[in-house]
Amino acid sequence: MIARMWRGWVRTDQAEAYVAYIERTGLAAYRATPGDLGAQMWTRDLGDGRSEVSTVSWWESAEVIRGFAGEDIDRAVFYPEDDDYLIERELSVTHHSVARDCG
């Protein structure tokens, strides 16, 4: 199993709207991809008017991630309205092999 992680930053007053937007776009695309094992989205108020948004998704293999992300699985996937929300973003994602699963 592989964990795929990404972070971006939004204005805190837009955090809820951005989470709802990603639920309709990115998380829906995860669920539609064979080999997706689930995902979570986390938010963290940084106290300076910004909130950090992180997505963590779990996949069967790097090959099935290509079904979602394309050939370059290390490049982050963005959607048309991301520019309306994101004030900063990571352009790449990190992948981690899951060594142990307590679930």
From TrEMBL:
Tagged with keyword Oxidoreductase: yes
Keyword set, alphabetical order: Monooxygenase, Oxidoreductase
A molecular-function term among this protein's GO annotations: monooxygenase activity
InterPro entries: Dimeric_a/b-barrel
Top-level taxon of the source organism: Bacteria
Protein known as: Antibiotic biosynthesis monooxygenase
Organism in which the protein naturally occurs: Actinoplanes siamensis
